[in-house]
Structures are given as C-alpha cells and as structure tokens.
Structure to design on (286 residues):
C-alpha cells in the first residue's frame, strides 16, 4: 500500500504490474475502497497482459482523506484521479470503472482529455429513480445530520465509519468543516443528481461529452437494473462520438444475480471483464 499527496489530500493507492504496457486505472462504485473483492483481481488480470494498473481510494473512501469541495463529489474525485495519474507518471492512461466509478472515469476523461488514452464504463447510473436514489444516498444522511445536530453527528454516521477507521485524521477534517458551508456543499452535490437539467451524466454537460474524442467502451446494462438502466448506457454510448456499445460477459440478469450473491462482494465478477477490456484496448488504442 502507498500514499500520495494530490491537491493537498493524502490518497491511498496500489500500483500493480511491472510491464511496459499501457497504464490503466480502475475505480469501483459507491464509496467502496480499493480492497473490495473483485477490483484487485481485475487489476491482476490486466497486469498479467503486461499492463500497469492503478487501483486507488477516492477522497471520501478507504484510507484517503475526506474532501468537501468542488462542483460535485464525482468531479472532485475525477480531478484528484488525474492529479494522481500525473503524480505517478501514468498519464495518459485508460480510465475505467463501474457505477460511481464509471461516472468518475468519464468526468476525468472529459475534464482532462490529455490524461486519457480511452475510457471504459459499466453500470452507468441513471434514470429518474436511479439518480434520485443516488442524491439521497450520497448526500441525504450527512445533510440531515449537519442540519439537526452539527458536524459531530455527521462524523458519527455509519456511512463514514470506514474512512474514520482507516484514516483517523479524517475525524478532525470533519469537525473542522464549517457547518453552513458543509450544508451548502451537500446541497450542491445533491442537486447534481437531479434528473431535471440538460445533463445526461450528472455533472457532465452534454457538450463536453460530445467533445470527448478518445475511444470509449460502454457496457450495456441489463434490463433488470433499475439503478444503472439499459437506456442510460445506450444514451451515453450515443453521446460519445468514438464509443462502442457492447454486451457484458455476465448476461442480462446480472443485477438480480448479483443481489442474490451479495456475500461474494458486489464487484466479485469484475475479473470476467479483463479479456473484453484488453481486446478493445489492443484494437483501438495505439
């Protein structure tokens, strides 16, 4: 395990593989850290093909510092990701991830196209239900706690337990937040997920998506997935000018199957993606 300082934040990461192939960075969803089952295993599969693969803890995840700035949480994390790639001399890289990681990956590539060889995404969150659930999930609890009881109550929330256990300094970072400023940040971040504007991907103006000319691989979501809808994956693929929409290796029932096997870990099947990701990269990325 290693730590790097990016934009004044301590960021936890691991770099896997010693080959001279393409650099990759993988980002999981939710606020899951780089130790979540399936992520490292996918990195190892890609590294076996001679690639260098970065896995990391986003700010507000794992052992990295918490951070409450930026237009949205995902945009802040995307900017830190690119800073980490540059600090490790890995840019430009293939930027890939699923669910929340797909959003961070796309924002990183769109906001910093010089840092991206290409972008690969699966489980792209979207739809009215999926977007509104995300806003409440990521921001609602902290917002309510800050309103009613202050920053001590925010730091005591179960959703922040892991980042406090893995990085004890984060407690002081919570308590140092101005309560009114923190509430304004949570409201701004929450508003990003409102499916009422002209942004297909929260936080990414459609014009910026259409301007992204790097190769993109989009895995189609299954019909059973109300949080990462099939329509959303198809619309993102249509938005990006140099994208390829493909069927995932786990089939249309993947969401239902994943819920039935939660004990395996939400990302346990990600290593199945390695051959598809590698073949795409070999074909379209020089």
């Amino acid at each position: 395990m290693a730590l790097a300082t990016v934009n004044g934040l301590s960021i936890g990461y691991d770099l896997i593989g010693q080959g001279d192939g393409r650099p990759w960075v993988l980002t999981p969803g939710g606020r899951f850290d780089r130790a979540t089952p399936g992520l490292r295993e996918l990195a190892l599969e890609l590294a076996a093909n001679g690639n260098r693969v970065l896995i990391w803890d986003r700010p507000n995840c794992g052992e990295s510092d918490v951070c409450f700035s930026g237009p949205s949480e995902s945009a802040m994390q995307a900017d830190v990701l690119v800073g980490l790639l540059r600090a490790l001399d890995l840019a430009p890289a293939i930027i890939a991830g699923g669910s929340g990681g797909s959003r961070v990956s796309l924002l990183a590539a769109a906001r910093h196209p010089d840092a991206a060889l290409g972008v690969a995404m699966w489980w792209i969150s979207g739809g009215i239900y999926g977007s509104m659930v995300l806003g409440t999930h990521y921001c609602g609890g902290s917002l309510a706690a800050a309103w009613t009881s202050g920053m001590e109550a925010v730091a005591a929330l179960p959703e922040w337990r892991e980042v406090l256990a893995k990085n004890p300094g984060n407690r002081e970072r919570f308590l140092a937040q101005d309560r009114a400023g923190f509430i304004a940040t949570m409201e701004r971040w929450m508003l990003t997920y409102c499916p009422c504007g002209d942004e297909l991907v929260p936080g990414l103006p459609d014009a910026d998506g259409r301007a992204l000319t790097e190769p993109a691989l989009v895995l189609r979501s299954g019909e059973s997935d109300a949080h990462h809808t099939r329509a959303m994956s198809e619309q993102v693929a249509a938005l990006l000018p140099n994208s390829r929409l493909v069927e995932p290796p786990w089939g249309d029932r993947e969401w239902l199957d994943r819920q039935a096997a939660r004990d395996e870990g939400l990302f346990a099947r990600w290593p199945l993606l390695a051959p598809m990701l590698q073949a795409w990269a070999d074909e379209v990325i020089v």
Q: What stands out?
A: The CA atoms of residues 161 and 278 lie 36 Å apart. Residues 127-149 form the longest helix (23 residues). The chain has a mean pLDDT of 94. The first strand starts at residue 2 and ends at 6.
